[in-house]
Amino acid sequence: MVCFLFITSVPAPSAPFAIQDNDNTAPLRYRLFGRPLTKTKKERKDQEENKENITTKKNKKATKSRRWHCCKNRCRVSPAPQEEGTLEKCHLSASQDEVVAVKRPIEKEKEPVKDEGIPQVLSTNMEEVAVTTQKKLRSEHIKCLGFPNPAQICYINASLQSLLTLEDFVTAISHQEQVWSLIPEAAVLRTFKNISERHFSGDAQEKLRLLAAFKRAVALWAPEFGDHQQKDAHEFLTAVLDQIRYWGPQLQVLTAGMGMAYSCPVEDHLMFKMQNTRTCKSCGAGSTREEDFTNLSLDLPPGGGTVEKMLDNYLMETELEYRCECGATKSGQRSSFATLPRVLVLHLKRFRYTPTFQLEKIHDPVDLQRDLVVSSGQDGACYNLISTINHIGATARNGHYICDGVDPDVGPVDLTDHWFTYNDTVVTQTSSVNVCNQRQRSSYILFYRRQPED
């Protein structure tokens, strides 16, 4: 008789009676039957010892931290009263761009004791700090004056910078916003005012948007400025001034019955009258007519010359082919100023066509004069150079426009010599002496402001 013995394996207890342990380093009984839920006395003892060690370390760390802060507080030195500064905000523009700097007050100096001879070093240091702070603010202020140039619009940037130098002209446009805003089509005035208000803004994207709007407004009436090609700065400047003048008569009629008045800023500040007189060489008979101008285009004399000489050549009598009633065919024509503007704009003809109809640039030097005396049929006036538009380049087909302008913070009778050079976004300080010396071969448009009469 054969007996069979069946041996079956007993599985390890499952939860909640035991916890399986897969750790190879654990005791064999734990690996076979699982780890019991209740801990052994040895494990409970080890856990309690670990807790005690952690608590001891935390207490030591807290004690060290309290001692360190106490020592630090005892070694701290309070600032002297004269070293405590006050924060001042300098708003650079209406778009809330600002530069914050620390400006320390200058304390009133006490009278020194003559016998002791105490040096006034403290007051001198405070003055130096104040001057340094002002220079820092001014440096940040200057950086915001530039305009971005994404696609060959340096001719627009240079023209705008020169116009923005004319503070009275800009103010006249701003003060009459209530009038010209009645005509939605007067986009040139609106966009120009927006640019003038953001001139000191550091937001390049906003300036780029305003420049694009200004360019579109000009291109509505002068389509040649609608593309992204380089253009002539003089032609663009003339187009802007003509468009502002265009709205003058309409605005004057519109405001006549509203108890308001409108005065064209271009006519008030830039426009003048030239008187052209024709005289027959045979009988002496002649005629006179007047013509409105916003700028004069002057020929460059061969080899160069002064601005005064170029202006005299323009006013010089020239021969004219004209058939008089007496039968003669030759007459003389002379131009003269009938009125004088507040701002005299002179365009130097640096570009001309050759006999083969090729456009070329003239590099003859022009002796730029800071002061210019101009006479008219009514009176005479002295003008000061306040801005220049310059063409930097070897040929007429390529190049770059930049602008030099007097510091906007300098008044019309200020004798200081603070100028800026505007090269798109890059703005640097310069002087009229440097401008007159460095722009002799590149000056293209000159802006002269009339001096106030004593």
UniProtKB/TrEMBL annotation:
Domain annotation USP: ranges: 145-451
EC assignment: 3.4.19.12
Annotated stretches, region: Disordered: 34-61
Protein name: Ubiquitin carboxyl-terminal hydrolase
Taxonomy, superkingdom: Eukaryota
Comp. bias regions, Basic and acidic residues: 43-55
Top enzyme class: hydrolase
Gene3D superfamilies: Cysteine proteinases (3.90.70.10)
Coiled-coil zones: none
